[in-house]
Each structure stands twice: as C-alpha cells, then as structure tokens.
From TrEMBL:
This is L1 transposable element RRM domain-containing protein. InterPro entries: Transposase_22. It comes from Latimeria chalumnae. It comes from the Eukaryota.
Length: 187
C-alpha cells in the first residue's frame, strides 16, 4: 500500500514541479512590474548610495526633456547585483522602482517615442525589468519582430511572451516564435 502511494506521488511530481516553477516565475515578474532597467549608464557615473533615489529622476529629465512640474515618484534605485564589470565590459544595468505602474508605463512610452536615447555621450536603453527566464523567452521572438518590421505589419509583444500580429484587420497570436515566423513568411 505504501509502495503504491509513493509511486503515485513520484508520477505527479514533474507536473507539479512545472506548475510550481510557472507560479514562481509569475510571482517574480509581478514583483518587477513597477521596475525599469536602464542599460548603458557608465560605471563611473557618481551614483553613491545617498544620491541613487534622486538619480533616476534627473536622468529622466535629461533624457526625455520633461517639463518642470512633470515628475515621477521613484521608490528606490540601484545598480543590478551582478559582479562589477571589468574595464571594457558593458556597465551593470541600473534598476529603478516606481511607486505607480502608470509612471513606469509613461517612462517606457517616452523611451519608445524618443527612439535612440543618449545621456552624457552614451547610448541608453530603457526597458521593462523582467526575470532572466522571461527575457530569454521574449528574445526568441526577435526574428519574427524584425520580419514584421520588414513587412510593415503591425505587431505587439504582449506579456508574458505572446506575439500579436494584425494583418488585414485580423489579429493572430503566437506563443511559439517559429510558428509566428512561418506565418509571416507566407505573407
């Protein structure tokens, strides 16, 4: 009787493990939903512990020419916890957490509208802060997104990793990047 019960538990474990992993990933990404990741800020930029919370706002004002009264409340800001890069390597990303999701979305929209963003002679990218696993999933859609741009097809990469493509007033959603690319190559 005990042997039967243990084999049943073992049989269900891979499914349960996958379900738990999906839940952990969802929780991690929901915890990051108010964060942005800023890539390209030079490592030598003076970002002491005391000035870090004020830094993102002055950075945003410099990069996006915000009006005097237009400010966003930033809860905290810091460099990522990766090891300090050796000279010649890319600097560690800077992460800022907003009090409001709407402020984060506005900053991402400003970044998108600005196109290339430069700060003190360095090219800067402002992107959503995602878990490494989700970022890797979304990265797989790069070829399909590039194909959409080549074809002039309207598309959006939706959360978590779903490519929505609109062609001739019809919308299709793809969770597999290869399926999306195959469809786009038929156009």
């Amino acid at each position: 009787d005990t042997a039967t019960m243990s084999s049943t538990v073992v049989r269900h474990t891979p499914h349960q493990q996958a379900d738990l992993w999906d839940r952990v990933q969802d929780l991690e990404n929901r915890c990051r939903c108010n964060n942005i990741r800023v890539l390209g800020i030079p490592g030598g930029a003076k970002l002491g512990f005391q000035v870090a919370p004020q830094f993102p706002m002055s950075f945003l004002q410099d990069c996006f020419n915000l009006e005097a009264g237009q400010e966003f409340e930033i809860e905290k800001a810091h460099r990522s916890l990766a090891p300090k890069p050796v000279q010649g390597q890319r600097p560690r990303p800077f992460i800022a957490r907003f009090f409001r999701f709407q402020d984060r979305e506005r900053v991402l929209q400003l970044s998108l509208e600005a196109g290339s963003t430069w700060w003190h002679g360095e090219k800067i990218m402002v992107i959503p802060d995602l878990s490494p696993e989700l970022a890797a999933q979304r990265c797989k859609f790069t070829s399909a997104r590039q194909r959409c741009m080549q074809l002039g097809v309207h598309y959006a990469l939706q959360y978590p990793a779903v490519l929505r493509v609109s062609v001739d007033s019809q919308t299709r959603r793809f969770m597999d990047p290869e399926d999306a690319l195959a469809f786009l190559n038929t156009l």
